Each structure stands twice: as C-alpha cells, then as structure tokens.
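Researcher: Quick test of sequence recovery. Tokens follow.
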C-alpha cells in the first residue's frame, strides 16, 4: 500500500569512522578511503581482534554544552551530534521566540541502537570487581539505557512528539526509519528525526563476537580486513558512529520551504523465523523484505538502480544476500549496481542502516555509485556488479538499502529522486 501522502527526506547528519559531517563522510567514502585501523581508545594487547572503525577527532562540546556531554554516554553523544546536523540541514530550527515551523508536539524522535551503553556497563563492572571503584556514578543508569538517546535529543531541542527506541539487532537503523514512517502514516507526527547510534567497541563485545566467529582476525592489515563479497573474506569489522535523517510529510516540507533531498518511497521489515545467528540459507527473509519495500513503493524490480547491501564480509551472509538479490531481481540483478560501504568504515551496528540510507540519498542526489573497496579476488558465488574499488558516475533514480541482523531480522528501505 502506498502512502496517503508522500514522505520526503529533508535533512542528513553523520558521525562515522570516515569523518564527522555528511560532506566529509561522503567525500572520503567515494574517494575509496578506509576508516578502519588498530584500536586506540583502549588496550587491545590481549584481545583476539585489535582493530575497528573508530570515530576520530570527535569533541562532544562542539555539539552540546559540558553538562549535556557529562550526562550522555558516547553513543548518545554521536546520536545527538548527527541529529543536530540533520536538523540544521533540514532548516528545522527554533526561531527567536523558541518556536519551530510546526507545533513541537508534531515532531517525533525514533532512535535505533543495538548495544546502547554496553561499554559503560562493562567498564563499570570491571572497576567494581577489581576495586578500582567502590561505587557507581549517579548518572550510570541514565547513560546506559537506550531510550535516553532519544530523550536527550527531545529535551535539548524541546520536542514533545512521539519518542521511541528500536533495538532489532543490525536492522535497528532502518527500522528506526520504518518506525518514523509509520508514525507519519498514522498521523501521529508530521516530522520525525530518525537516528541510529552505536559506540560498542569495547573488550566485552569484541570477545563475545569473536567467540561467535563473526569477526575478521586480520590484525596485521586492518584497512583491508573488511572484504565484502571477496573470496578471502573472513568476518566483519566492528565500527561505531551515528546517522540521522529527517523525514516529513511532503505538504509540511513544502509549506515551510524545506529543501527536499529525496523521497522515502517504501520501507519493510520481516523475520526469517529460522535461527538466532544464521540467516536462512535461501535468504527467504531478505527476499520478502526487499519485495515488501518495493510493494510499499509501488515499483517494479527493474526500477531499482542501486542497492547498498548489508554486505558484512562474512562467508555465509554475503553469499546468501547475493542469492536473495538474484532470486528477487532475476535478470535485472546483472544490471544492478550493488556495493557494501562497510568495507570502508566497518559495521556500525544500530547506526549502520541510517548511515547507509544516507549513502543511498547521496547516490540519488549526485548520481554516484559508492565503491566496495578491498575487492581483490572475486568470489564465483558473488558475481554481481559490486562497484569494485572505485566510485562510478551513473544515473541513480531509485536506491535500496538492506540491513539484516541476529534473530533473523530483515529490513529494507527505498529512496528515490524527488520529482
């Protein structure tokens, strides 16, 4: 079913291992740079995996005052900074009387995160267990629970609309956008700030994901460790950061004179009903979700020009996603451009789906296909056009973003040129 009224994207914000700010992030992405390196924020000497995509040169006080910075855990700071950029980008700011262009009760926030404040939990428990601390910081609880990320944005920006937090594994970011779209479709909000944020790089998560055999172990070559669709891929690389997109009713955007970046064409969510960590071997959930997004958009498969793949660089996952794309798109799969930008920045978990949706918006705006870097040896089972190693100019009218996660979570979103 198509939306009763078009929903459009008017603002973008990003905090990533490739740079803070959408322009810097995008420029480094299409230049084929890597944001993955040996971890610098904690001691990795005894860890099986010693590299990740880290946000560099981020000063929270560039985006908030000292009190706010003290009250927020890192993933919240990233989310706040991305939301702040997106709101300014969309012209969604208060006037001299402290009023927004629409009633503040009609502006919502949806925040997606997987691990929320896990790094703080792990560090606080370690300090208590080793005697390095005898009590917990009074801000501990409000810094670790996921919903406070959305709350901090709403409080600082004086918003009074719906505030929701989504945690659906690695689908959380796209599901935040889907949830925001649902709020608009049900007329519970006119504008929604959709945020995905993660700062889960810590010894506990590295040990846990390594025990699952999910991570790449290329400690000696971190920049080329993430190799989506390459025959020598050996697991994903952790990343951190945030993305934010402003979505709103077309009539609201037009009335307030907002610049429309793209149209939000359709969203879909579904589950495999198969296994807690492994995707269904035939990719049935991925197929159903991609198909659902196209049905919501009212388009045929042949209308899609580009897919930003989930493409985590795991041996099973990449092959299954390719199989799903071939199954759904048929002959058109060979004409599609498909890239995984996780090769450049790592897997941003709950932030990934929003940041990668921003990639799709930029691809549609600028008619540029971002590359899949680290394409060294093609995998015969992964035989699509992955835009290997270098960005490419090409007309992009409609782009799809995929995100698949533990528990069999699947999410897809479609964006297109606004006409």
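Model:
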């Amino acid at each position: 079913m198509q939306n009763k009224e078009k929903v459009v994207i008017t603002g973008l914000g990003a905090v990533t291992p490739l740079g803070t700010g959408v322009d810097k992030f995008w420029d480094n992405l299409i230049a084929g740079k890597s944001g993955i390196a040996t971890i610098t924020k904690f001691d990795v000497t005894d860890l099986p995996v010693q590299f990740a995509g880290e946000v560099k040169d981020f000063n929270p006080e560039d985006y908030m005052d000292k009190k706010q910075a003290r009250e927020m855990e890192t993933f919240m700071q990233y989310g706040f900074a991305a939301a702040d950029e997106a709101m300014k980008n969309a012209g969604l700011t208060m006037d001299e009387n402290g009023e927004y262009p629409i009633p503040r009760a009609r502006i919502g926030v949806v925040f997606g995160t997987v691990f929320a404040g896990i790094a703080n939990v792990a560090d606080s428990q370690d300090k208590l267990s080793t005697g390095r601390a005898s009590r917990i910081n009074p801000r501990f609880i409000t810094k670790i629970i996921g919903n406070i990320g959305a709350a901090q944005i709403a409080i600082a920006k004086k918003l009074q609309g719906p505030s929701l937090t989504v945690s659906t594994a690695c689908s959380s970011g796209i599901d935040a956008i889907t949830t925001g779209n649902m709020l608009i479709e049900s007329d519970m909000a006119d504008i929604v700030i959709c945020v995905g944020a993660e700062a889960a790089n810590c010894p506990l998560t590295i040990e846990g994901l390594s025990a699952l055999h999910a991570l790449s172990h290329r400690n000696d070559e971190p920049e080329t460790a993430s190799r989506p669709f390459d025959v020598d891929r050996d697991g994903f690389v952790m990343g951190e950061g945030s993305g934010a997109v402003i979505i709103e009713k077309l009539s609201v955007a037009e009335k307030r004179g907002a610049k429309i970046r793209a149209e939000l064409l359709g969203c879909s969510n579904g589950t495999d009903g198969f296994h807690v960590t492994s995707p269904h071997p035939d990719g049935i959930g991925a197929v159903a979700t991609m198909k659902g997004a196209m049905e919501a958009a009212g388009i045929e498969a042949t209308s899609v020009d580009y897919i930003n793949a989930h493409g985590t660089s795991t041996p099973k996952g990449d092959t299954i996603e390719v199989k799903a794309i071939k199954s759904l798109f048929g002959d058109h799969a060979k004409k599609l451009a498909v890239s995984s930008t996780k090769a450049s920045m790592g897997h941003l978990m709950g932030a990934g789906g929003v940041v990668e949706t921003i990639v799709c918006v930029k691809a549609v705006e600028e008619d540029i296909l971002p590359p899949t870097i680290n394409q060294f040896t093609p995998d015969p089972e992964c035989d699509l056009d992955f835009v290997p190693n270098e960005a490419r100019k090409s007309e992009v009218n409609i782009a799809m973003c995929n995100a698949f996660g533990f528990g069999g979570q699947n999410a897809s979103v479609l964006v297109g040129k606004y006409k």
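The chain is about 35% helix and 20% strand.
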